[in-house]
């Protein structure tokens, strides 16, 4: 097992940029973009040959690409290009989220892919959408050859119970009581162990899994690298409480269902589950502002506060709106943008992203 | 092969009542509710046992039920109740149609099914949505055990070419030139043969297929039993042309992509394709007014013109609106309702519905 911890400051992250949003995205987890890929027929032989030749089932994309394009189709494309055979591609999301947008973009995706791959592409793979939580069983036993989840697994299945004392915070923070931190960790353990258990049942022996998710390097789950961006959002909400726009009780009863684990915590769950080997774990730092290294960004895209607040709005608005109401969302994110812009001008602001490669060996 | 032609006047039909509608439902075919069911693992053995025991892979629903409940889940439920094993259920529709509504109703459907079946239900089947045209390949070779299409196959993949002479009609009519009738039949042959060819590739040998669709008993494709309801719609549009609300050219260039075959035409295509046996073909007459035999219908539901126009609006509005514009739709269907009510008060008005049972023997 190799933990390849690297520092890369030129990488980008669009958090949940491709994530569909639906009415079910309330206080429950909003995980999406889990692309389960299974290949039938002669693909297994070809995959084995590729494995012995390249040491990987996949045509390896660059790490820059992986952080830039966390969408549903990204791994699919690399998988399809790598192995030409009949393939079933299952795109998973919660039943309440939006599959229509993904399905409507399929014909163009397939057209482009056909142009890219060239003739002889034929009817070689088949897309389906699988509605359901990936913290539950989704597929028949040993029916998958490859699983990928893209920037979703840091969302928990629900807000942890027993965290009423986490007042004026909306996530774990340095001011959170220890019982809150423990409740978050317990929920992560429950959820991630379920994910591993069910994927293990669904994958064939020798099947591969690649997970990308937000994490942290520190052993402290309240460390700045993973909690800061939410603390700034709590700050915007707290200001609105002080000014009478939001009831204090509303803020005190709101928490984000999210957990960004450290490598040791991930490893513990993988070892407890017992059927996966971690082939590699890469840790990268990714700038909050996805457009930070664009050569010629537009004036709007030069505004880091605008970019990051917009990106976070795509992730958090459905959850916030279901609790605080839609009407205050513009004001919340206006204030959030100002706070972010101020902090970005004064300090280095980065997420920590993990890419983890697994093989199911049992 | 047995053609079981029966007359049943007490049956009901909700045409495409469950059909999702999306922006792609324009002049192209709007086929939906094609439920492809494949069962993995030990289901094949069980299915074989059932076949030899019952003469059918399916727990046979009543014919009344089949016409009353043409929705996506109906056959699924009967299949699931009939064979308890891991099952993959693929729900197919065009990529532009609405999968979200179906997926959001899945948890309740599964909950009810669990209550109905009782304990031990477990993770025994898995739903996915498959976006794509059923006139194209959708699944891997020999990956399906059962296919069902519910009231969709009378929609063609496109409006037939070369029917510019079909003036003041919107479908085949007694006044249509012979070349129009031939063009419609040619398109039906092309489409239905493609459907059979691709499903044959996807089904295992011994796999079953049940198709429900609108048809006709007469050999004349312009006969009243299949064309009358569209002639009345053309009448409403034609009145609006005469009164200057619709341009004549707009009406002349509009045609519905639909074909209601007779048993002999279906049989011809099945024999040409060569890998299916028709085990049974049932022909039923179904009242235009789905609420006609309700014991205590509300005042609104007593109004046959209202019911039938509303039902037809669900089917035809997306196609009409994309050609004539949304603004005149209320007026079109107000006039259509009046015309339908008048005719229903004077004559017997019925659709002809087919249920066809196939086995893939090659």
TrEMBL record, chains A, B:
SUPFAM superfamilies: S-adenosyl-L-methionine-dependent methyltransferases. GO terms for biological process: methylation. The keyword Transcription does not apply. Residues 1-11 have a biased composition (Basic and acidic residues). It comes from the Eukaryota. GO terms for molecular function: metal ion binding; methyltransferase activity. Keywords: Magnesium, Metal-binding, Methyltransferase, Transferase. Residues 1-24 are annotated as: Disordered. InterPro entries: MeTrfase_7, MeTrfase_capping, SAM-dependent_MTases_sf. Belongs to the methyltransferase superfamily. Type-7 methyltransferase family. This is Salicylate carboxymethyltransferase. It comes from Escallonia herrerae.
